[in-house]
Amino acid sequence: MTVTYTNKVANARLGSFARLLLCWRGSIYKLLYGEFFIFLLCYYTIRLIYRLALTSEQQLLFEKLTLYCDNSIQLIPISFVLGFYVTLVVTRWWNQYESLPWPDRLMNLVSSVVEGKDEHGRLLRRTLIRYANLANVLILRSISAAVYKRFPSTQHLVHAGFMTPAEHKLLESLKGPHNKFWVPWVWFANLSVKAWRGGRIRDSVLLQSLLNEMNTLRSHCGQLYAYDWISVPLVYTQVVTVAVYSFFVACLIGRQFLDPAKAYPGHELDLFVPVFTFLQFFFYAGWLKVAEQLINPFGEDDDDFETNWIVDRSFQVSLLAVDEMHQNLPPLERDMYWNDRDPQPPYTAASAQSRRPSFFGSAYNISMDKEDMEFQPNHKSDEEEEGGGPTGIIGRFLGLQSHEHPTRTNSKTRLLARRKESFPHKMGYAKRQYKDHRGSLMFPEGRQYHGDQEDSKAWKR
User: Fold this and answer.
1) How far is it, in rounded angstroms, from Cα 125 to Cα 112?
2) pLDDT for 4-15, tens place per residue?
3) What is the b/e burial string over 38-67, where b = at least 16 CB atoms within 10 angstroms of the residue's CB?
4) pTM more than 0.85
5) Closest C-alpha to 280, from 87, 88, 78
6) Distance CA 42, CA 278 (A)
7) Is 202 helix (H, G, I), strand (E, B) or coil?
8) What's the pLDDT tens digit per position in 183-192?
């Protein structure tokens, strides 16, 4: 169902995108031709009624209505509303694709972590990866119409080989009002722990890696379930739809060509085909149809996801990886560049023109004179030595400062400085100290220390 045209636009040439306009499957023509024919029929029906069926007074009334609609039609913010809506839908569409549960990383871990080439080891690996594929099919048949039509019941999964009759019986015996797509992941986790206890998984680190990857795929399934449950708010979709349809309903009347003989402003021409009105319908209505197609990519439109192909590919590749490819390695051999320090893979004649030398950087080929490459001694200029550098008014205006910054003080630094003066014995002022008759410390310089009283006074300042 997915329309792929990547190969047609691989090279930018004259008319690369223009050739895509001739495609029909997945094109805007296929999406829009029904609405466009309805718009054409309504437009020309109103035109014929105005020209042939109305009287002069009725034509005058219709012409006033046409001028009113033409002036008021610009009040509808169709570009603003529609642009934000389509951006939201496209982002949501790509996030849903990134949430698809691809089992490639999990099958690599199962193939390398679960050991044993005997029948039991093979059974463990195939069962683990089958549980992963079963969980993916259960979530896809819950959100994709194409997968549900392929597997309309869980019994069909038994006939298709995704589940054994015993597993189906156990799944059906679990009573609950919720979707059971998570059940195979529980089986996967329990079987992995059982294999680790039985020695099939060597240590707990490998078991943890296997369970982490399992939880990643489980999260992807949960995200798909949430995207299917939580839609774009209905009111937003309704607002966009009403804006687009009301705009073109007003166009049916406001874009009619009036009688040029009456000299209405902007109606000097009487054209049979309103070209720009049709182009406007093609762009805006086409934009809305793009959002309509991408808002749920799990349907059966031309550009919806190939969910049934994803089911087939995941099942076939994963079983091949854990069964036939388990410990099935090619022999170790020396490559053809074993003794070559600079291997040069060959080019064909068709690809020889794409050979390029290595890129070293945009500044690698800059040429300089020999005198410009000599280092200069670091010395101050005469102006900087005499005047202390460009620290005048002009220098401050330009944001220049000298290297010798004056000491900046504030109330806190002045307070700490006074406190340091209160402890001269810590600053190295005297090696000997005496006590007076009041018990205060005295130093040879005549300074005294009165203990906590001076300290508290200094902090109170």
Assistant:
1) 10
2) 878 788 878 887
3) ebeeebeeeeeebeeeeeeeebeebbeebb
4) no
5) 78
6) 13
7) coil
8) 999 999 999 9
